[in-house]
């Protein structure tokens, strides 16, 4: 069976790198754990780092976190569904919100549970996912700040999550100005301007982050060490926190061109023949996982000679070229991963998860 390995030392290294830069600027932050899909072994590794705040988009994952360490502050990072209100109040200390009716329900439930529920109002800054429109913010806040058992601890935004709109100094300054406007209008203190995410971190490294941004939520950068502006590794960070290990279950020299009448395969793809490949052969290996677990678009072979040529639901085919490079059946092939690939593997019950 294929397995996913978390390298503890690389995770620790990346955490310390991020903490060093944020602590230097006096910026509070939390770790986004949604990639881990509630895996207790991996969540424990986060907790062992000394994390004080964990963010997730699945309330069941936050429930797991609270059971593992009740002292951690948990943050639910999407507007709650009505049917989830009770559990959001029970297991999330903070939630992202954009709908007045939802906040009223949170207020009522928090009163029933005798809790003070914190909220971050998300503001639309151009990427058109969740967020209150800026020109409606004052009226929106005016209707919620006196609700019982609710306190607004921050204003936030998400960028690059839907249409790929990138953060800029102008957008983040505007977010900070919204905080100043609310505080002046209502004479209320708002603790956080939560504009920081993995995609914003390069602005901090380049000393371009507006001073008003004082809260970050970091996920992808922690696990992959990548700069989302350049799609390259951040100097000083590790890219091997997660590696996939897949076993070869067949290795045979075969023709490079299929024979017979071609039609679309079960994935809806239609193979295009390269006429230069007629009469040629290569060593083709089959790995013991498939599209049910991960899209081949998210695989990065650690052996540069390997080419991923296709996949079905439960098998991935790789091309080893004209030489099998000493590979044999039973050998393990290693891959680094893109974010969505790791997410698929972590959500798969068919992939073992281990810690190095």
UniProtKB/TrEMBL annotation:
Keywords: Isomerase, Pyridoxal phosphate
Entry GO CC: cytosol
Keyword Isomerase carried by entry: yes
MF (Gene Ontology): alanine racemase activity; pyridoxal phosphate binding
Alanine racemase N-terminal domain mapped to chain residues: 9-226
UniProt cross-references to InterPro entries, sorted A to Z: Ala_racemase (IPR000821), Ala_racemase_N (IPR001608), PLP-binding_barrel (IPR029066)
Essential cofactor(s): pyridoxal 5'-phosphate
UniProt xrefs under Pfam families: Ala_racemase_N (PF01168)
Protein name: Putative amino acid racemase
Organism: Marinoscillum furvescens DSM 4134
